[in-house]
Design goal:
Layout lengths: L3 H7 L11 E6 L3 E7 L19 H20 L7 E13 L8 E12 L2 E10 L2 E14 L1
Main location: cytoplasm
Protein name: 3-hydroxyacyl-[acyl-carrier-protein] dehydratase FabZ
Catalytic activity: a (3R)-hydroxyacyl-[ACP] = a (2E)-enoyl-[ACP] + H2O
Amino acid sequence: MMDVKEIRKYLPHRYPFLLVDRVVELSVGESIVAYKNVSVNEPFFNGHFPDHPVMPGVLIVEAMAQAAGILGFKTMGKTPQDGSIYYFVGSDKLRFKRPVVPGDQLRLEASIVSEKRGIWKFDVKATVDGDLVSSAQILCADRKI
């Protein structure tokens, strides 16, 4: 549904921090399903951990937030080019259930819970092969650049 070229229109992130490779489902105003393909060539694996590579949890949260950001931008009908940016401002109920390793395909899901005065709340989760990796409620703030 959205390849990386279109994703780059909705997220200001670039290598090595763009963590969404493809969007496969999008229901504007409701939910999104996206993927991050995890490769051993990711720069963070050099130090986390050299003999036992594990994707850092904070980057899993960031990937979920980026998927939510795409959903938010699409729902608002805005892009970063319009002078708008989405800040990740908080999380609740954050849990990690299993590590993410090279070769995994991270399925990122987000659904809108609420929006009030530019503060958006999303339910997010990440899975690999149907197994829950992480879940949370996250808050994002839409602000002018």
